Amino acid sequence: MKVAIIGGTGYGAVELLRLLHIHPYAEVKAIISHSNAGNSLTALYPHTDGFVEGTMETFDMEVLKEQVDFAFFAAPPGVSRDLLPELAEAGIRCVDLAGDFRLKDPAVYKEWYKLDAASADLLERAVYGLPELNGEEIAGASFVANPGCYPTATLLGLLPAVHNGLIDPSSIIIDAKSGLSGAGKSLSTVTHYSEINENVKAYKLGAHKHIPEIEQVLAGVGGTQRAVTFSTQLVPMTRGILATIYADLKTDLSEVELLESYENYYHAHPFVRIRSQGEWPATKEVATSNFCDIGLHVDKRTNRLTIVSVIDNLVKGAAGQAIQNMNIMQGWEQTAGLWMLPVYP
Ligand SMILES: NC(=O)C1=CN([C@@H]2O[C@H](COP(=O)(O)OP(=O)(O)OC[C@H]3O[C@@H](n4cnc5c(N)ncnc54)[C@H](OP(=O)(O)O)[C@@H]3O)[C@@H](O)[C@H]2O)C=CC1
Ligand SMILES: CC(=O)N[C@@H](CCC(=O)OP(=O)(O)O)C(=O)O
């Protein structure tokens, strides 16, 4: 199948390219670049030498409709909102890595993204693409909103507990740390080497656009959902998210029984791995892979559950999950092109 990548010179796009190169059924036919049309990607990213042919192209709706069967949007918010609907209308199935179609309520999108939303009708038609939650819905989608990186780690950590009513949904606190590639390729003062090297920094407290996304999904799973506390921190590493999640327990299940309930919830989902009792995952154990690894701890003294969930933000948090969604939409095995050992150390 022929695919296009839009937002060609960004980190998400380059990661899509890396993974699609080994995909058994998909082939990248067009790399669309807003800033570098006419130039070769290899000139910007020498590591792609020998793997990418030709030059990047400008976005041309009519050309694209003839050229490809599937498109990935890996551009900043606002781009897919304007361009994706016409492609989808023409039968080109799409996965959007940005947040333009994740939130169902246009007013909520506007409040958190500070941009005008797509129409309510389009937002309704978009399918949120977390395969471990709603694979059947994804299979029938014409376009999928790929979850945010932090929501992916957070929701996979919480789904079994919320679905089975094991925790008090009003008590959830998410403390999440991310590597710098989560911020994309553009340099800012915060991501400058001398600012973040040997440093850890909290940011966007109470204001992160992933807050309404997490709450929207949890409300759908648990029936009712109160506001969550969600804190984000930058750590001086390139890839990876570690979310430590705390919630009050509403069950007498032991730690081993809780781990079993997590194993059961994810038994048909190859990309989620549950650690044994007393073991908690680290970001390096999933680096460059599409895995989400989860460990639990029950604190008997406080009656709280601690969940540790790790992903690679560029893979399960972005490009890998987008390909997993494409696989499901196309009726292929969801592991196609994604079944690989993490790079270690
Ligand atoms: N980095 C991550 O870990 C994750 C990122 N995402 C989301 O995926 C999307 C891509 O992220 P990422 O690759 O990291 O971001 P980058 O900033 O690295 O890349 C985004 C790319 O989009 C293109 N672009 C920029 N402005 C415009 C514009 N006005 N119109 C069209 N294209 C534009 C540029 O490429 P070009 O000029 O070549 O077109 C740019 O390099 C974002 O929406 C991001 O929020 C989601 C989950 C995780
Ligand atoms: C480290 C870092 O800066 N991370 C980004 C994550 C952005 C992202 O990927 O979010 P969307 O997909 O929802 O656009 C942030 O916190 O804003």
UniProtKB/TrEMBL annotation:
Give, as in the UniProt entry, the pathway in which the protein acts. Answer: Amino-acid biosynthesis; L-arginine biosynthesis; N(2)-acetyl-L-ornithine from L-glutamate: step 3/4
Tell me where it mainly resides. Answer: cytoplasm
Q: State its Enzyme Commission number(s).
A: 1.2.1.38
Q: Which UniProt keywords apply?
A: Amino-acid biosynthesis, Arginine biosynthesis, Cytoplasm, NADP, Oxidoreductase
Asked if the Swiss-Prot or TrEMBL record annotates the protein with the keyword Cytoplasm, the reply is yes
Tell me which Pfam families the record gives: Semialdhyde_dh, Semialdhyde_dhC_1
Q: Which reaction does it catalyse?
A: N-acetyl-L-glutamate 5-semialdehyde + phosphate + NADP(+) = N-acetyl-L-glutamyl 5-phosphate + NADPH + H(+)
Q: Where in the cell is it found?
A: Cytoplasm
Q: InterPro entries recorded for this chain?
A: AGPR, AGPR_AS, AGPR_dimerisation_dom, AGPR_type-1, NAD(P)-bd_dom_sf, Semialdehyde_DH_NAD-bd
> Which residues are the active-site ones?
C149
Organism domain of life: Bacteria
The Semialdehyde dehydrogenase NAD-binding domain covers 2-141
Similarity annotation: Belongs to the NAGSA dehydrogenase family. Type 1 subfamily.
Q: Describe the function of this protein.
A: Catalyzes the NADPH-dependent reduction of N-acetyl-5-glutamyl phosphate to yield N-acetyl-L-glutamate 5-semialdehyde.
- The identity of this protein, by name, is N-acetyl-gamma-glutamyl-phosphate reductase
Q: Which gene encodes it?
A: argC
